[in-house]
Amino acid sequence: MSIQLSIRDLNKRFKTGDGVKGISLDVMKGELVTLLGPSGCGKTTVLRSIGGFLAPDSGDIQIRGSSILHLPPEKRPTAMVFQSYNLWPHMTVYDNLAFGLKLRKKKKDEIRSLVQEALKLVQLESAEHKTPGLLSGGQQQRVALARALLLEPEVLLLDEPFSALDAKLRMEMREELRDIQRRTGMTMIFVTHDQEEALSISDRIVVMRAGEIEQLSTPQEIYDQPQTLFVAGFIGRINLIKGTGTGRSVAVGEARFEQERAHDGAVIAAVRPEDVYLTEQETNSLPGMIRQIMILGHYAEVSVESGEQVLKMFVPREQSARLHHGQQVRIGFSRVVSFPSPGA
Ligand code: ATP
Q1: d(CA 71, CA 92)
Q2: Taking the CB of the first residue and of the last residue of the chain, which one, N or C, has fewer CB atoms within 10 A?
Q3: Which class does domain 3-230 fall in?
Q4: Between β-strands 155-159 and 78-81, what pairing exists: parallel, antiparallel or unpaired?
Q5: By the 8 A CB rule, do 141 and 161 touch?
Q6: Which pLDDT tens digit goes with each residue over 147-188?
Q7: Which neighbouring-strand residues pair with 60?
Q8: What distance in Å separates the CA atoms of residue 328 and residue 336, rounded to the nearest whole number?
Q9: How much is the pLDDT for 344?
């Protein structure tokens, strides 16, 4: 696979002092890479720099080996899909899609077949003659996506495209986007602050914090092997517990557990709720009391008070039916990733 987009030491500092620092990133052809991080961490700044809507202070952005920094947005081999769909309200869906192709002096027959193909791709054949106002938010976003795809960009930029949609539709659109991306082989950069969205659609995730890259890995690695406490806390649900490390072992209270990475001294042990289990064993387990049981469909989220902390665990439905508020239990951890304690 070849490198489609290369960002080299990108820097942008706004007057306020915010911005991005030393961003470097290679995106392979056909890859979907997500920029993920809390509000203000610089995701949009990176995306807008790629699209040409913002001039970086230094660094380079290349597509297939050539710098694009000197090009205005409309000359760049990129297209952008925004959270607000930016469709022309008085034009039909067909005309919204055909517009860019007409500007490119494509022939009428070709435009017709390209637009119909694009509408089929986003499953909107029936909306061809409607104006955007008659469509739902999800449908309008599909039109915006089709319009961007018709420009055949080398890199498609998506800026929180689904954040205005309700939860159910957002899930559907994720699946659809992923499907379209596989079918077209298009390279995509997707911006979101929704970690679940990032985990579900990306080939790789760039976790950003305060203008810098905190971790760049596959969703699985980000989830299982967070490199920093920030990534551990930001992605997915997690318990953060004070402990003391000795090599590959970590002591929490009286109990000892194996840890994924060796650390000595004061640590924060990070344990996902699915890695906390109930046990009868007296050794290497922690005593606790059940504080709350929340049924969440096929599993329950159980809060266990142990010492000063309240730990969350996920329990299958049939097991949770046998638990009750106030019950004394013992818990163990099947997987612990720990980090040197920030205060140590
Ligand atoms: P969000 O999810 O809220 O959109 P983000 O991660 O996309 O956040 P950016 O929009 O890239 O963050 O902004 C990064 C930082 O730079 C923020 O602190 C923001 O306030 C600041 N910033 C962005 N654009 C400008 C600008 N034109 N002038 C001054 N400061 C800006």
Answers
A1: 31
A2: N
A3: alpha beta
A4: parallel
A5: yes
A6: 999 999 999 999 999 888 888 888 988 998 999 999 999 999
A7: 8
A8: 23
A9: 62
CATH assignment, 237-340: 2.40.50.100
In a mutational test of the pocket of ligand 1, which residue from 20, 41, 50, 205 has the highest number of ligand atoms less than 8 Å from its CB?
41
Q: What are the residues whose beta carbons fall under 8 Å from the beta carbon of 179, sequence distance 6 or more?
A: none
Choosing from 43, 195, 206 the residue with most ligand 1 atoms within 8 A of its CB, the one to mutate for a pocket test is 43
What ipTM goes with this model?
0.94
Sketch the domain layout of the chain as residue ranges: 3-230, 237-340
What tokens does 177 get?
Answer: 């986007």
Q: Does residue 18 line the site of ligand 1, with CB under 6 A? A: yes
Nearest CA to ligand 1 atom 29: 14
User: What is the reported pLDDT for 72?
Assistant: 95
In the block, tokens 């970590």 appear at 250
The alpha carbon of 86 and the centre of ligand 1 are apart by a number of angstroms equal to 21
> What residue owns the CA closest to ligand 1's atom 2?
39
Q: How far apart are CA 266 and CA 229, in angstroms?
A: 14
The strand pair at 58-63 and 3-13 is best described as antiparallel
CB of 254 closer than 8 Å to CB of 221: no
Confirm or reject: Cβ of 43 under 6 Å from ligand 1: yes
Whole-prediction pTM? 0.91
Model confidence pLDDT, tens digit, residues 220-261: 999 999 999 999 999 989 999 999 999 999 999 989 999 999
CB 241 within 8 A of CB 269: yes
Q: Would the CB of 45 count as within 6 Å of ligand 1? A: yes
User: Does the beta carbon of 328 lie inside 6 Å of ligand 1?
Assistant: no
CA of 41 to the centre of ligand 1 (A): 7
